[in-house]
Design goal:
Number of domains: 2
Helix content: 25-40%
Strand content: 15-25%
Number of strands: 17
CATH superfamily of the largest domain: DD-peptidase/beta-lactamase superfamily
Oligomer: single chain
CATH class of the largest domain: Alpha Beta
Low-confidence stretches: none
Structural class: alpha+beta
Order of helices and strands: HEEEEHEEHHHHHEEEHEEHHEEHEEEEH
Shape: globular
Number of helices: 12
Distance between the termini: 34 Å
Strand order of the largest sheet: 3-2-1-16-15-14-13-12
Largest sheet: 8 strands, antiparallel
Amino acid sequence: MSEIKIEIDATEAGFDPARLRRFDDYLDRLVDAGRMAGWVGIIARDGKVVHVGTGGHRDAEAELPMATDSLFRAWSLTKPFTSVAAMALYEEGAFGLNDPVSDYIPSLAGVRVYKRLGGGNLETEPAREPIRIWHLLTHTAGFTYGFHHSHPVDELYVQRGFEWSAPPGIDLATAVDTWATLPLLFEPGTAWNYGVSTDVLGRLLEVVSGQSLDRVFAERVLDPLGLHDTKFWIEPEEVDRLAAIYMADPATGRAVRNDVLAGGDPTQRPSWLSGSAGLITSAADFHHFLQMLLHNGAWNGGRVLSPQTVRYMTTNQLPGGADLGAIGRPVLPALTTLDGLGFGFGFLTAENPAATKVIATPGEFSWYSATSTYFFVDPVKRITAMAFPQLFPSKALPLYSRLRQLVHAAVVD
């Protein structure tokens, strides 16, 4: 069980305490307005916790208060773990970033690309470029998610049972082989689209390591950092710590409990281990994961990556140095704009904060999930910040911008 406590006085760390309280005040107002059930927030500088806040409930119906050791379904905050595990295997020489993925997953040889939908018929053509491993890490492979509902290929995913999750009982290998039969949205490496790339990456990690994804994570990321709350399923005695998921009512904006989104029994091993959205974690564990990234691949006595690798994967990797506004499909509704944002290996990167219209430091990297869990790492000011509600969808709250506004405004050194 991971607790988290303040380790340095806010003033000593270069924060204005009164301004820092605005962080809690803002999140508490959302709870008081019924827009989310509860939250945990952690802000740190130079690896020392400056501020910890909690508010509301992890389970409002049972009147269980949110706590610093509450557990959260990570959803897309699983993706950074998968990217880090991938780069740890890369450092072992397991693959090259430019390798075709079909060298390891044969079903992805001979993929086809969407051309047009004419007369009710879907036209495709053979891909000119193979899907390469760096395409998976950057969401430039051409895969999609069914839940976007914005492209004919999205609907093919839904028809095969891949909207928010997967058909019951399917394993990851079968899922990837199924996606291989569906057309890509575009030629690999030419555009950006948020999709199942990180699940395909998770399967690749299983193939190159000869291990299941949970063992890959444990040996290369979780155990070295002492992250004992981060796993794909939990023990029965931990269920009371697990935060319930709430959904914003489209008519009122109020948070309504949604146990369907929570998925199946969290104490059972899933039929497939999702590198995109499968983990359960705690705010404390995720804080330590962020410290590893801030501190160049090492934390808590364990080294996961080299400093050069961390710098490389948190640098914009989009083709030609483009930003998401230029080559990204607008499928991230929690963001006000994609302009000025790059994408590394699993992280948004702040390339031009003036273009994003959200205060940030160039070089800052971040990510978030469908249930409104957010973080950013500022390697220049040496700050990490995170806010963990459990509210679906993320577009119901402007936390992508507010987290930055409130934290950066409190830094006065």
